[in-house]
Amino acid sequence: MKPMSTFSRTILFFTGLLLIALLDSNAQEKIVFNEVIDWAWSPRQSLTYAGNGFYWWHRPNEGPGYITNYGQMPTNSWKTPYDYENGTFYLRFEIIEQPTSTPFTVQFGIWQNIGTNTEVVSALANLTGGAGSSVAKSIGSPANWHQVYNTDVDFTQPEDFYRIGFVLWKGNGSCIPMAQGWSNSAQCPNAETEQLNYFPMRARVTLVAVAAGRTFSGWNNYPPPQGGGTKPPIPTYSIDYVNELTNKVIPSTDEYAYNTSMTGAISGNSNKLLVTPGQNVYFRTKASGENPASDIQALNVPVRPAAPVFTYDPANERTSTIVSATYEYAFSPEMNSAVTGTNNYVTYPAGTTCYFRQKATSTSFSSAIQALTGTSYIPPDSCSGYTTHYWKLDENGSAYLYDYAGSLDANVVVAPTRVNGIVDYAQDFDGSAEASIPDDGSFDWNAGSSFSIEWWMNKSSNCA
Question: Whole-prediction pTM value?
């Protein structure tokens, strides 16, 4: 083997130096974050990144998610061997989707040591707002960023960073649309309304840190993150109140859940979904390929209306009021063969139960069911409270003829036949029929007693 020439050794030496320089340069320029984000505002308790005007991709100490994400940055020190605290950070933020074209500002921040007031935030980056709006700029050096509280963030201990992410400000930084239990002096006074200008938002975000003494290599070395497919439209399910179903089938490309976070979401099976009064349902179109999941449709399902309050008229054995066509009734608790009201009274005998409910409409479920049992008629006391016993003789095949004013029910020995009477019904005693009233002291009248006995009788033949 020939010995390597001096020229070859020189070329190899400089090649090695160049490779070391390139590796060293790469080591001093790091991606902090490079993703397509879907930024919602509410409900903040269910979003892994918090929402509510904030987007934290690093939250190792907070749920839901407990996410650790430093990107390419070191986890032990941002000061040595490369000094990012005195370096420069570069932000590229491109809006894919925004509800309006309202301008806003984003700001990068780091929060350290949970439970303490240790926070640093970058210079602001302004966006004109709306899909296609973007900014790519330096957001300065952490050494010059605003330390929000008295204690400075310690960049030698990134393991204590418990939040890393963005803050969204209205306009040029006038206020933050925060609410949902959070508040401070930076809060927008009408946050619930203000946030509708910005959220839900979809954006491509790249954040690069360049160590002190180094020059940024340029955005050409950082292609925008992929995954910016088109978000499908929000579903449009409604309620079929008559059948208590969704108005259309749920395809397998959609899913539903009974909570706003879509936990335990169930895929559609090409059938309509049974809806339960008072239980809201949440729908979305599932993610497919590069296309993300749609925004969530909240289907607010109202409670079932209260049962009607019809009353029974025992004297006429019918409802006390007419039953209109907005109601239906049946003689089974399952409402089998229900009949729609006809603006007339509903007639049925004492002892029978009739079931009523308000019918479903295009905007309301059918009501709860009222069970109304007919009661026997007790005539008013025409003798100013002195009636002691009253037998209506309306029973049909009963073992007793009931006393409606006292407690002396007559025992039926041989049952008479119920027939129509001058008031409601009467009993036909054919000579063999017999009823016996128990002996009672209330019948012990003396010679000076005053009493009356009244009855109605219709003889069928002349007595012998």
Answer: 0.51
Cα 274 from Cα 207, distance rounded (Å): 47
Contacts of 49 (CB under 8 A, 6+ apart): 37, 39, 55, 56, 57, 59, 65, 165
- Could you give the CA distance from residue 152 to residue 79 in angstroms, rounded to a whole number? 14
Cα–Cα distance between 50 and 163 in angstroms, integer? Answer: 10
In this prediction, residue 39 has a pLDDT band, given cuts at 50, 70 and 90, of very high
- Measured CA to CA, the distance from residue 291 to residue 228 in angstroms comes to 7
- pLDDT at residue 16 in the model: 45
Round to whole Å and give the CA distance between 31 and 23: 15
pLDDT digits (tens, 9 = 90+) for 309-355: 999 999 899 999 999 999 999 999 999 999 999 999 999 999 999 99
Structure tokens given for 267: 């895929």
Average pLDDT over residues 5-14: 51
Would you tell me how many other CB atoms lie within 10 Å of the CB of residue 202?
21
Q: How far from 416 is each of 83, 348, 408, CA to CA, in Å?
A: 111, 23, 18
CB 402 within 8 A of CB 392: yes
Angle at Cα 424 formed by Cα 419 and Cα 430, nearest 5°? 25
Q: What number is the average pLDDT over the span 437-457?
A: 85
Residue 22 has pLDDT above 50, yes or no: no
pLDDT of residue 384: 52
Q: Residue 88: its pLDDT value, please?
A: 98
What is the Cα–Cα distance from 312 to 324, expressed in whole angstroms? Answer: 16
